[in-house]
Design goal:
The protein is mostly helical and 466 residues long. Helix content is 74%, strand content 5%. The chain is built from 13 helices and eight strands.
């Protein structure tokens, strides 16, 4: 009898999580419904995206629950939540298309909207067709970050600039979004391959710690004398950044926020330091302490996110470049916000791996199968990247009279193409398999993300509108 009770416990636990997620989704939808009743416009783009965010978050929680427990009902309900989020996402895409009179490809916001939609579709395809049932543990957090960023970007519909008034816009950007989503999927598959290939958990620990160190080190490039953090000023009425002059943003300093980010940097660096101590002393007990430090870092990173949101959302701050007090907003600092959220998700995924690695390995396909699926995904992404560049070159020649101008976006698109070309070349001609191929897939996605976001904000050029 005691054994029977033990065997029934996972089912009860599974039902509990499903009920909790269901109640959470229902509560958030009900709160959204109350706002809709007040506004009188239930099917606007903002409401549809909010619904998509709720369902994607529910799906992410259930996928993580499935990764921890292996309870089959989790992944079934996670799929349903993903389908519901995709339906809302599709409604937002259709609404945007109808309002703008053109496909949603003309701005970073619209491209992100299309990217998240494509990623959700490919998640369901990978889950159903290839049986990678935990793929959502990686792709759904990416979708959540994407939808959150959309809430911060400018959403107003503008007429297309002359350079974008072409059918080739639809061709070029459609190919780009399909290719980028396929690259994201290959990244998730490559990470899962490394798990199945018995890469040491400590190696994932180092990668996680270095990633979060990079996030906070990047944020601290805005550290100001006195411990403040410099962020862009924001005009709430126009939903736009404030400028001192053309091309020169106005920065304000949030007091003491720099000190907090410095403290969090030390916390997220502690697992790496503990790993080095354990490695030097050849004592694995230090790795256990390092794993606990990762959990502490998650709590501190959540604190950093909440403080940043509260301080950036409310208040007016001084500037080093102009007199007076000026407001700011999380929307003025999408890189900071996306970095904070990405650091939390990355640390949580590592904690899941460290806690339940054996269970995850039983749930995943074999290493050979994951390696093959990653290869097939890149075989889809690479022709799409090639056609994207070719369509963009033809379009550029018709618009500007030149096939190639070495614009930063063009240059980094070429670098992305070369990385994936290198992957296929080394695999086909040299027989590269396994970890080296997985590293290529991970590197490729990192380059894709910089091409998509980094170039847009850091290296403006002819593609500044995208």
């Amino acid at each position: 009898m005691a054994r029977a009770r033990v065997e029934q416990q996972p089912a009860a636990t599974g039902a509990t999580l499903i009920v909790l997620v269901g109640l959470g989704v229902a509560f958030l939808l009900f709160m959204a419904f109350l706002n809709v009743v007040k506004s009188g416009n239930p099917l606007n783009e903002s409401n549809l995206l909010y619904a998509a965010l709720i369902f994607y978050a529910g799906a992410s929680a259930l996928y993580l629950g499935f990764g921890v427990t292996g309870t089959p009902s989790y992944v079934r309900f996670a799929s349903l939540a993903t389908w519901a989020g995709l339906a809302a996402n599709t409604g937002a895409v259709a609404h945007r298309w109808y309002d703008g009179g053109h496909p949603p490809f003309a701005s970073v916001y619209e491209m992100l909207l299309s990217f998240v939609w494509t990623l959700a579709v490919l998640t369901l395809v990978a889950e159903k067709k290839y049986g990678v049932r935990v793929i959502g543990t990686v792709t759904m957090p990416v979708a959540i970050v994407g939808v959150m960023l959309m809430q911060l970007l400018r959403t107003d519909v503008h007429p297309l600039v002359p350079a974008l008034q072409s059918t080739w816009l639809h061709v070029h950007v459609t190919l780009a979004m399909l290719a980028y989503a396929a690259c994201a999927l290959s990244f998730a598959l490559a990470m899962m391959f490394l798990i199945q290939d018995k890469m040491q958990t400590e190696t994932f620990l180092v990668a996680t710690s270095l990633f979060t160190i990079g996030v906070y080190a990047g944020i601290l490039t805005r550290f100001e004398k006195g411990g403040g953090l410099s962020v862009v000023a924001w005009n709430a009425q126009d939903q736009a950044e404030l400028f001192l002059e053309r091309g020169v943003r106005l920065f304000v300093v949030i007091p003491d926020l720099g000190w907090l980010m410095l403290l969090i940097l030390l916390v997220v660096a502690s697992p790496f330091v503990l790993y080095l101590v354990g490695k030097r002393q050849n004592d694995e007990s230090w790795y256990v302490v390092a794993n606990r430090a990762v959990f502490v870092s998650v709590l501190m990173q959540v604190l950093a996110l909440l403080v940043f949101l509260l301080r950036a959302r409310d208040g007016r701050y001084g500037s080093l470049d102009a007199e007076g007090l000026y407001p700011t907003s999380p929307a003025a600092s999408p890189f900071i916000l996306s970095g904070l959220v990405s650091g939390i998700f990355t640390s949580l995924l590592y904690s899941l791996l460290a806690w339940r690695r054996a269970d995850l390995e039983r749930l995943l396909p074999s290493a050979d199968a994951l390696d093959h699926i990653t290869y097939k995904t890149i075989c889809i992404a690479f022709p799409l990247l090639t056609l994207m560049i070719a369509a963009g070159a033809y379009w550029a020649n018709r618009t500007w009279g030149s096939y190639w101008s070495w614009d930063p976006k063009e240059t980094w698109a070429a670098i992305t193409w070369l990385v994936y070309a290198g992957y296929l070349h080394m695999r086909i001609t040299r027989g590269w398999r396994g970890r080296r191929a997985a590293y290529f897939a991970i590197l490729g996605f990192a380059v894709v993300m910089f091409t998509f976001f980094g170039v847009t904000y850091l290296l403006p050029g002819l593609h500044a509108y995208a």
